[in-house]
Amino acid sequence: MRLVVLDGFTMNPGDLEWRALEALGALTVHARTPPEAILERADGVEILLTNKTPLARDTILALPTLRFISVLATGYNVVDLAAARERGIPVSNAPAYSTRSVQQMTFALLLELTQLCGAHDRAVKEGAWCRCADITFQLQPLTELDGLTFGVLGFGAIGRAVAQAALAFGMRVVAHSRTRPHTLPDGVAWVSQDELFGCSDVVSLHCPLTPETERLINARTLRLMKPGARLINTSRGGLIDEAALAQALNEGRLAGAGVDVLSTEPPALDNPLLCARNIVITPHCAWATRAARQRLLDITVANVKAFQAGRPVNVVNG
User: Is the pLDDT of residue 103 over 90?
Assistant: First the structure.
């Protein structure tokens, strides 16, 4: 079989091995694939692997040899699932590979907002401590997490892991998701979505991007949040109305926000969050620890092996 990776660089910039995939067929790896090159590179290929390169309906229908698609991510909105299903092409994803890495980034963002380690480091290196009359200084009051309320919106594997970390910090945890689980971890209280916005000192987003969740954070829901609350998003940029969030930050209605994702990536220079007050932005790298990327590759290899054995796994299009 011929296997083609359309955009392998983000998962493997050179520190992982492709050997396990090479053992499964004639493998070609492209670092990136522009839209105009997709059909040429996929021509005659049985197995396509994509991270963010879109496989639209017209593309899928134009590839008669295509038999299997594996997405190098958990999210699979880059593939037209209905078109693949019509062709009898299973589409698999890589679930849960980045849970601990995203948990870690969620609290890295929150701790930067509450402790300002990076900002203090820059100030010290610029001479502020050398000029200080006292043994210490603070750029702004620091915040202790113990006793604060942490709201988890979206209670899948990552949401649960983040809740676990919040409990370890001594925080009260409330949660809401589209589907309420049969059981909740000790220390986690289930509340309505609006209750979560209203009672939380920190709101952390762990939802998929769907028509129902698009711009879930908007002018109305931001008004529900406590003055001085903080918002964390390590999920999908489209969950946030970025203009509304920028306005809330600039008006001081929120104490801060930490986001690893934006609605368009890479962002346009005029994205309002890039110049908003009290926001920390990282470039969609919460998932990208080496350990997580190795798990992603391992799951992808297992997906391909299962398809070749006639028993595809992690299929997201039925």
Answer: yes
